[in-house]
Amino acid sequence: MPSSPPPAFVHRRVVEFYETDLAGLAHFSNFFRWMECTELAFLHEHAIPVFTAGASGQRGWPRASACAQFKAPLRFGDEIEVRLRVVSVGRACVRYGFEIWRLAGPGAPELAATGELASVHATRPRSSGQLRPASLLPATRAKLVKLVDPPSGKISP
Amino acid sequence: MPSSPPPAFVHRRVVEFYETDLAGLAHFSNFFRWMECTELAFLHEHAIPVFTAGASGQRGWPRASACAQFKAPLRFGDEIEVRLRVVSVGRACVRYGFEIWRLAGPGAPELAATGELASVHATRPRSSGQLRPASLLPATRAKLVKLVDPPSGKISP
Amino acid sequence: MPSSPPPAFVHRRVVEFYETDLAGLAHFSNFFRWMECTELAFLHEHAIPVFTAGASGQRGWPRASACAQFKAPLRFGDEIEVRLRVVSVGRACVRYGFEIWRLAGPGAPELAATGELASVHATRPRSSGQLRPASLLPATRAKLVKLVDPPSGKISP
Amino acid sequence: MPSSPPPAFVHRRVVEFYETDLAGLAHFSNFFRWMECTELAFLHEHAIPVFTAGASGQRGWPRASACAQFKAPLRFGDEIEVRLRVVSVGRACVRYGFEIWRLAGPGAPELAATGELASVHATRPRSSGQLRPASLLPATRAKLVKLVDPPSGKISP
After folding, report:
1. What is the pTM of this model?
2. Contacts of residue B51 in chain A, CB cutoff 8 Å?
3. Which residue among A62, A69, A131 sits closest to B65, beta carbon to beta carbon?
4. Residues 6 or more apart from C122 whose CB is under 8 A from it?
5. Virtual CA dihedral for D10, D13, D19, D22, nearest 10 degrees?
6. Residue A148 DSSP one-character state
7. For B66, B140, B154, D1, which has the most beta carbons within 10 A of its beta carbon?
8. What contacts D138, CB < 8 A, 6 or more positions away?
9. Are D112 and D73 in contact (CB under 8 A)?
10. Nearest to D92 by CA among D52, D123, D57, D47
11. What span, in angstroms and rounded, lies between the C-alpha atoms of C86 and A157?
């Protein structure tokens, strides 16, 4: 039985009270925040600059797109694990795949959501103020391409 | 020159200071909140119950999926218009398409993002506590199917 | 019967679904966001710069303190009115008082919360990166002192 | 040299990208969220129910008031420590004092903010739907009064 390779990065957190809504569940917008937190912690772990601002302008990772598919609700106090994979690395764009698992509770881990982020490496020169895609720095590219892992199947808990 | 039909619903708001991040732009998670606000205001306008909780349990519209494609950044103080279309109505699921336009500024409106939400009509009986899809109420279905409008092209500003 | 002077500025909004928590009420952190939105809309109305960033650095209004007293809960869909008064104007600090009223529903308006913000006019030179209080610009001071209105009593709805 | 007693509870976290605003600092509304997270984790640690909802109604801890005094800015990636003290325990109200310290960086810890929350033990019977203060449960009171610690002075880092 083939097993999936482990994710490139794992981030754990707890669903906070302020992240719930009146339906008693974690509000869906937070799933995107958790995916971003995982992405940025992953970049930090690999010493890839997340956001820089200097005299000449800014450099960062605005999103080109973001999607999520919700499988099971999450509640206040649930311990969750966000698993990140690098799906592809383009000239200026990195695509990530995510799985959000619920760890707390009596049973086995439960898949709460899957998602994707496409992040663009972009600069905003002070002179123009315009946000523009910029080729990945060579060192960044070298680190990311080694981690590319097309999501070929379900990650086993 | 063919013109697109008008959206089923339009919601306007202003980008707030607390919705920005250190890159100086509206954080992408807010686009999902604005789409939801528009969806719920649309339901309210059509006297379709958004969320009810009673002795027997809850009835609401959890999301099955949410996606957004970001086209242009939004900044603090920008006036925006969120345009909603009903893409399809299933047994228990409604799919919406969104366009978020930036209205403020000197030029013509600018498309800042497109997006989609798939919302499931669901009940959570107090007895089981389990969230389950539930067929649309006939009155709700009747109202929604009349508004179905497959997004056949770009909405002209 | 003495009547209170009107507030210096009034801001209306609706409590959004994403602003509620699992207790079914608006989360208390949002009251601070609504007070800030009102403060910044008030400054904008009076053509007082809210936040500027240029080659030499930033100029803005970080908070020295924020307080709120919660009187009645707010729920999804409630229409609210935030009333702002200028309590005092110091060398670099402006103190605001707020009342948040619930307008929706069958009865008379209900006071949901009172609050205070102390905002410091501050600069952050690019050279040092340090946030420092800065004397109010003369034009800003002139506008604000005319509006000072110590909260001598309850504002009548 | 007298030293302060340790706080009753300590909660650590990192300032997230989505918690910043366009001034490049953590938005002040998040300080209140961090204080709440610490309060609820403290209750959980002592096996004091945070929020319950059943057939007869709800029981929780709505806030009567919340205040914060901001001393130093926090930035994306800063590691912070929130220190909680129980200031007083009333019939239905518990007052907490907080200190938020910045741990990251080259120097000694820096006090970023102090704050206070007054939380009311309240019930909302399903029959009336009205939120009402309710005397603390005896077991809860017994646990909390043992931890009362009037903030007599600065906590040394």
Report:
1. 0.94
2. 22-23
3. A69
4. C59, C60, C61, C62, C92, C131, C132, C133, C134
5. 100
6. B
7. B66
8. none
9. yes
10. D123
11. 57
* Cα–Cα distance measured from residue D93 to residue D48, given in angstroms and rounded to the nearest whole number: 14
User: In 3D, which of A107, A116, A156 has the Cα closest to residue A36?
Assistant: A116
Q: Which tokens hold the place of D42?
A: 């403290």
C63, β-bridge pairs = C119
> Per residue in B5-50, pLDDT tens?
789 999 999 999 999 999 999 999 999 999 999 999 999 999 999 9
Nearest to B39 by CA among A28, C12, A25: A28
**Average pLDDT of span C11-15:** 97
- Mark yes or no for CB contact A64/B73 under 8 Å: no
- For chains A and D, CB pairs below 8 A equal 32
Helix ranges (DSSP H) in chain D: 28-45, 138-145
- Under 8 Å between Cβ of C28 and C62: no
3-state class (DSSP) for residue B57: strand
Q: What are the chain B neighbours of A50 within 8 Å (beta carbons)?
A: none
- Radius of gyration of chain A from its Cα atoms, rounded to whole angstroms: 17
Residue C98 neighbours by CB under 8 Å, 6+ apart:
C35, C38, C68, C82, C83, C84, C85, C113, C114, C115, C116, C117
Lookup: tokens for B139: 């009155």
What distance in Å separates the CA atoms of residue A39 and residue A87, rounded to the nearest whole number?
12
In chain D, DSSP finds a helix count (H) and a strand count (E) of: 2, 9
Low-confidence winner among A93-107, B61-75, B113-127, C70-84 (lowest mean pLDDT): A93-107
Chain C residues whose C-beta sits inside 8 Å of any chain B C-beta: 16-18, 24, 33, 36-37, 40, 44, 50-51, 53, 76-77
pLDDT of residue A149: 86
Sheet hosting strand D79-89, strand order edge to edge = C9-14, C79-89, C93-102, C110-120, C63-70, D63-70, D110-120, D93-102, D79-89, D9-14
Q: pLDDT tens-digit profile of B70-108?
A: 999 999 999 999 999 999 999 999 999 999 999 966 678
Q: What is the pLDDT of residues D44-67, one digit of tens each?
A: 999 999 999 887 889 999 999 999
Read off the DSSP letter of residue D53. E
Mean pLDDT, to the nearest integer, of D114-132?
92
Cα C34 to chain center, whole Å?
Answer: 7
d(CA D16, CA D23): 15
Q: What are phi and psi of D131, to 5 degrees?
A: -80, 125
The residue among B5, B2, B1 whose CA lies nearest residue B150 is B5
